[in-house]
Design brief:
One of its GO terms (molecular function) is zinc ion transmembrane transporter activity. The chain is of the alpha+beta class. It is 62% helix and 13% strand. Helix 2 runs parallel beside helix 7 and helix 4 packs antiparallel against helix 10.
Length: 396
């Protein structure tokens, strides 16, 4: 009997795997032998992405990636309209997805714009630009400490200051607390839209083969569903409902933390390319902008009595990613991964909007209140308006 059962299971497993094996064999055969239709392209299909330009005392170090379907050979380098010598590590010929470091000894001028063109053996031209020349920061202890301090200013301090409004907010009754939670939804909705826009902006800088826009959507969709699944699992296990507010605050802090990671990326990248003035304005703007995030994180705790350790951990979870973002943007910025991170952050923020909205709706139904009341509508509108006004400071 057991032998028959095991034999039946093995047969079912084989029937389940067989279509996949045949499909893989078919795709492999097409990839190796082709489709049988031999049409030569009218022009060579070459794509060379300039991923990063590093400015040193000796000139430029340019990291390039072959993201096209064909082999690419760099034949000549042109800097500011003049042909220039260059050395290649490991080689001027790049296979598909191959990378090379192009070292160009050039006397760049601080503050001036520079244009670097790569001409392939087939005559195609790919361009990289330096808007304002400045020596690229070298990763060392001092620079790490400076960037960490910037992230601390932008992330942890303003979120902590926003949390200080908690005692004042506790004076509100149920409708007042719902209005504050609605204000939080407004804040988060603005952050959700802003995070998506930042992700798509990064996607335009990523190599087309990696489908940066798709990474933003996939990251947002999958992170949203993942967090919903985790939340539902915790709800089934959770017996003490009084902890619900704290759980929501921690979700808020994690979602906002991913957003603040993106802010750190922008700040670090600005300083890395020599845009010190832009970096300073970003620090000031994001610092003012992020105070309101602390208010949003504190709102779900109004029915609880959290300790100072809870507030400290919330400030760290929401603010510390700005430090990681500043390091990443300043030293190892990659637009493809940045687009994915922004998408994940957008999905996390959307999940928190869903959780808070569900909380307001449930409590309003239990008490016979209107979930979309005028105070709640005003709270959402005010939250969006506050974030919009503070965001303007970043752009001026």
């Amino acid at each position: 009997m057991n032998h028959k059962l095991s034999s039946g299971k093995g047969k079912m497993l084989l029937l389940g795997i067989l279509p996949f094996v045949l499909l893989i064999a078919l795709v492999t055969g097409i990839a190796i032998m082709g489709t049988g239709v031999e049409n030569e392209p009218a022009a060579p299909i070459e794509v060379l992405n300039v991923e990063k330009i590093k400015l040193t005392n000796d000139g430029f170090e340019v990291k390039v990636l072959n993201s096209g379907p064909e082999e690419v050979t760099i034949a000549q380098v042109v800097v500011d309209g003049s042909f220039w010598n260059a050395s290649y590590v490991p080689s001027p010929t790049l296979q598909r997805f191959g990378q090379a470091m192009v070292q160009i000894p050039y006397p760049w001028v601080a503050g001036d714009p520079h244009e670097i063109k790569f001409i392939t053996s087939n005559g195609l031209i790919f361009t990289g630009a330096v808007e304002a020349a400045a020596q690229t920061p070298v990763p060392d202890v001092n620079r790490f400490a400076q960037y960490a301090l910037i992230g601390f200013y932008v992330g942890i301090i303003p979120v902590g200051l926003g949390l200080l409004w908690y005692p004042f907010m506790r004076r509100f009754k149920t409708k007042g607390m719902h209005a504050i939670l609605a204000f939080t939804v407004g804040l988060l909705f603005f952050l959700f839209v802003d995070t998506f826009e930042e992700g798509f902006e990064m996607a335009t800088e990523a190599p087309g083969v990696f489908q940066g826009s798709g990474l933003v959507w996939f990251g947002a969709f999958l992170s949203f569903l993942f967090l919903i699944a985790v939340d539902q699992m915790n709800e089934r296990r959770m017996k003490n409902k009084s902890e619900n507010g704290k759980r929501v605050s921690y979700k808020l802090a994690m979602g906002i933390g991913l957003h603040n990671f993106g802010e750190g990326l922008a700040i670090g990248a600005a300083f890395a390319i020599g845009e010190s003035a832009l970096g300073t304005f970003l620090v000031i703007g994001f610092t003012l902008h992020n105070i309101t995030e602390g208010v949003g994180i504190a709102a779900p705790l109004l029915k609880d009595r959290p300790t100072w350790k809870t507030f400290a951990s919330l400030a760290a979870i929401a603010g510390a990613p700005a430090i990681l973002g500043t390091w990443t943007g300043g030293f190892i910025f990659n637009p493809t991964f940045a687009a994915l991170f922004f998408g994940i952050g957008a999905g996390a923020i959307l999940q928190v909007i869903y959780v808070i909205s569900k909380m307001i709706w449930k409590e309003s139904s239990e008490k016979g209140y209107a979930a979309v009341s005028w105070p709640n509508f005003s709270g959402i509108s005010l939250g969006i308006l506050v974030m919009y006004v503070t965001a303007l400071l970043v752009n001026f």
